[in-house]
Q: What sequence folds into this?
């Protein structure tokens, strides 16, 4: 069953602005991950945050996790045209039992 | 290249055909996965292999048959598919430990006619 639910479904911003995407999930998790997918290609792992972490940074990416609200956010700062892609959150319940993905947010960066 | 290679990239097959999708990784990962991605739907987990044993089979129709002969190779055998099986099929691998991201291949775009 679907676990993650991204919001918004689509987002269009100007280059240089910050982009924020949100993810909500339903059951307890071991970790939450964010992935990027360029049109028709495979997914690329961006960042993983464990259930006992609240915030994590990687370059221009900032991820937060609120386990009490079962939600996460992904912030991309100083966006670039190359950031245009679909972004997915995925949750893991533990072990190698597979990630559960949401439908994704389609991000468009206008030059 | 991500380290996970899928072949073929594109496949068109009739409903009576039999074909196989191949996935290969040399990252030293010991868990491999098949996902199906259809338009406007979340990625659907189809099969999980961990240490070469199938540990997950999410109610996938029997016309899809996975095979994992070793930790580096994963196949998805297809037979008597339906048009609604047309989708992007993605293979991924990960270390056995849970605290790592997955590495995905570029996918096989399957069209059933």
A:
């Amino acid at each position: 069953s679907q676990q993650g639910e991204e919001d918004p479904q689509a987002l269009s911003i100007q280059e240089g602005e910050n982009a924020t995407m949100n993810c909500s999930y339903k059951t307890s998790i071991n970790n939450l991950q964010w992935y990027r997918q360029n049109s028709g290609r495979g997914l690329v792992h961006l960042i993983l945050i464990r259930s006992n972490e609240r915030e994590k940074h990687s370059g221009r990416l900032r991820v937060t996790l609120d386990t009490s609200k079962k939600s996460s956010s992904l912030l991309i700062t100083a966006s670039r045209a190359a950031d245009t892609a679909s972004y997915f959150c995925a949750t893991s319940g533990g072990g190698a039992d597979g990630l559960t993905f949401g439908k994704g947010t389609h991000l468009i960066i206008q030059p | 290249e991500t380290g996970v290679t899928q072949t073929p990239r594109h496949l068109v097959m009739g409903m009576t055909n039999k074909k196989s999708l191949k996935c290969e990784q040399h990252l030293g990962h010991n868990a491999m996965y098949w996902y199906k991605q259809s338009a406007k739907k979340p990625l659907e987990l189809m099969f999980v292999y961990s240490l070469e044993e199938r540990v997950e089979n999410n109610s996938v129709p029997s016309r899809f048959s996975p095979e994992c002969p070793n930790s580096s190779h994963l196949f998805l055998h297809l037979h008597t598919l339906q048009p609604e099986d047309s989708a992007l099929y993605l293979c991924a691998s990960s270390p056995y430990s849970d605290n790592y991201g997955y590495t995905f291949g570029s996918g096989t775009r399957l069209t059933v006619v």
Q: What stands out?
A: DSSP finds no helices and eleven strands in chain A.
